[in-house]
Structure to design on (96 residues):
């Protein structure tokens, strides 16, 4: 998993998301990555867009299931929105 934007990445762990990362983007939005297998960053670290921050997994309540990354986008640090269009745009323009 890579940082979708530059910003401050904070690792966290809980029973629901397992190994997770909150990325507080320099763009004013926050991003959440969950069910990771392992972190590639320190607990609190500045990261650059495209930097590897964690590894796909099945931690938390996904244990024993298919490995994947639960990913959320929180515009202006508010409620989560469907990330599909943002990820599709980034992937098709080869930005990540």
């Amino acid at each position: 998993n890579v940082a979708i934007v530059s910003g401050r990445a904070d690792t966290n762990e809980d029973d629901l998301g397992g190994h997770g990362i909150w990325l507080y983007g320099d763009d004013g939005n926050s991003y959440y990555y969950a069910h990771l297998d392992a972190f590639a960053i320190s607990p609190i670290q500045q990261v650059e867009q495209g930097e590897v921050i964690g590894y796909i997994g099945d931690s938390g309540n996904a244990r024993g299931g298919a490995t994947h990354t639960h990913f959320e986008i929180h515009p202006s640090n508010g409620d989560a929105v469907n990330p599909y269009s943002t990820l599709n745009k980034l992937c098709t323009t080869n930005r990540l």
Summary: DSSP finds one helix and seven strands in the chain.
